[in-house]
Design brief:
The structure is a homodimer. Chain A has about 300 residues and is an alpha/beta fold. The first copy, chain A, contains 11 helices and 14 strands. The first copy, chain A, has a single domain, classed as UDP-N-acetylmuramoyl-L-alanine:D-glutamate ligase. Chains A and B meet through helix 7, strand 14, helix 9 and helix 11 of A and helix 7, strand 14, helix 9 and helix 11 of B. Chains A, B: This is Sugar kinase.
């Protein structure tokens, strides 16, 4: 088993879309990343997160039943779990945040359990860059691959700290606007080169419904997003993408560009399920057969045959 | 030789980008479509357009030298050629129109030369839908494939006329926002289905830097745009795409989905050259070797190998 340490928020989400609304359901980056990574054989996804004691034991059991190690989920006595609520507009591409109650997440100081400190792969979900760095520093053995997700918020208020953390990171995942902000370059090709110079060997640029790019030096690869008839709830798609990406790499056991390419496709594939139902619901029910079928659809979507030697 | 009739504007463009500005250069949809289509062997691109007598003979000669039949370019005595001027912003994705002087284009009534009336492929560049329809009606033999490009402007002011014309069209090319406007559907999959019901068997959705999709019934295929370090001038990229698409189909001589897929890649490939220099400059100098090399880059960009049977 290949251990994949996943650090990220664990939350209650209340989501409203044009198709309906939920009560407080399990949310935050780490459950999506964990559930996506748990789809892979021989991968042991282990979440490091913090919740309040209002977080139901059944949610922890639910994660454990799906093969996710929850030893690193700290439960703060008397604390309240991070709560996020949002409402999507009709186009499903924009949303209003109705509530963000950080609660115990505000003082999150991740404690990596001793049993996790030699994990080969570490996936750092979007958090304060100093908090992400503290996880890297707790590892006893330098991981084979550290993947970091971040966002424009940290570029706005903690750019120096982010740059310090990036020096210890192998893969960064950000969206196209964030890549432009971080690099000061409009071209994504040039942006990736500049971000590469900040530390990460691999730069993953997420473009939502427009797919994702990965750059390593002069190499680049593009994974499309699958065009869907119905997007029910986009929440967690980006985290599912990261979980599928990290999970496939953990399973493959190497960090070649070929592995990264396949990982990008798996990330995009799993994310295409998440958006079909509320929250983590679809990711809970997806079967290996359905994943195979959808990978086939991805192949059909982009594979072409031009004899360029004629 | 397979004749490809191209109907579209022929213009003077004056372009300003962050990298410089041009005097009045050759522009409009039909020169880009024609130059792109002229890249293919055994294709005889024939432009039907209108210009004023201020349009230099050397421009007509220039097109003819590149293998484009100019018999259908009407020169209006005492008339002035359509003039467009635009200035791109720093991000190159948005622009201000500085001048639009329709001149002779305002009364454009295309006259298809007798020698063009049995052409198997007709590419209708973005024009008033009634004008596009008049071209279809002038054909002596029903073409194997009629491709129509249009835009939101005609959906706003001439929707009924557009719908009438669409009934006679095999392929429509529009951008994603226009597909949503025309269909009233946000999902591009659902939008394509609705547009299909309006007439076109094939629906091509152009997403600019995010690539292009083609739909036929339940089949879909995606051609990425090649991420580039430098975009010098985006003018004409969409028309070059259309010209590469139509040109490849004319060369292939069939209208199977496999042919459409390859055509989409060729369109995207040729468009990636156009944006590298001002106007049609790059398209004039591109060599078959450069096109092959770039097709190889497109393959590298999206081809992946997952054994989905294991």
């Amino acid at each position: 088993m290949s251990k994949l340490v996943i650090v990220g928020s664990c939350a209650f989400d209340a989501i409203e879309t044009p198709f309906g609304k939920t009560d407080k359901i399990i949310g935050g980056a780490s459950p999506y990343i964990g559930l996506a990574a748990a789809q892979f054989d021989n991968v042991d996804p282990a979440i490091v997160a913090v919740v309040g004691d209002d977080f139901p034991q059944e949610y922890l059991d639910f994660l454990a039943e799906r093969g996710i190690n929850t030893d690193g989920i700290e439960v703060v006595k008397g604390g309240k779990t991070f709560f996020w609520s949002g409402k999507y507009h009709n186009d499903m591409n924009s949303r209003d945040t109705l509530a963000t109650e950080l609660n115990v997440l505000a003082d999150f100081s991740p404690k990596v359990p001793a049993s996790h400190k030699e994990a080969p792969i570490v996936m750092l979900g979007n958090l304060q860059p100093q908090v992400q760095l503290s996880v890297i520093e707790q590892m006893d053995v330098k991981p084979k691959l550290v993947i970091l997700d971040t966002m424009n918020f940290w570029m706005d208020i903690a750019l120096d700290e982010l740059k310090t953390t990036l020096k210890k990171v192998d893969v960064i995942t950000i969206n196209d606007e964030e890549a432009r902000q971080l690099s000061g370059e409009y071209s994504l090709v040039t942006a990736a080169k500049k971000i590469h110079e900040m530390g990460p060997k691999y730069v993953v640029i997420k473009k939502g419904e427009h797919g994702a790019l990965i750059f390593e030096g002069d190499k680049m690869f593009f994974a499309p997003a699958l065009p869907l008839s119905d997007v029910f709830d986009p929440t967690g798609a980006g985290d599912t993408f990261a979980g599928g990406f990290a999970g496939y790499i953990a399973q493959a056991g190497d960090t070649s560009f070929e592995t990264m390419k396949t990982a990008l496709i798996y990330g995009s594939c799993l994310a295409s399920f998440t958006v079909e139902k509320f929250g983590t619901e679809r990711l809970q029910s997806v079967t290996p057969e359905e994943i195979k079928e959808r990978l086939h659809q991805f192949k059909q979507l982009v594979q072409f045959d031009i004899n360029i030697n004629d």
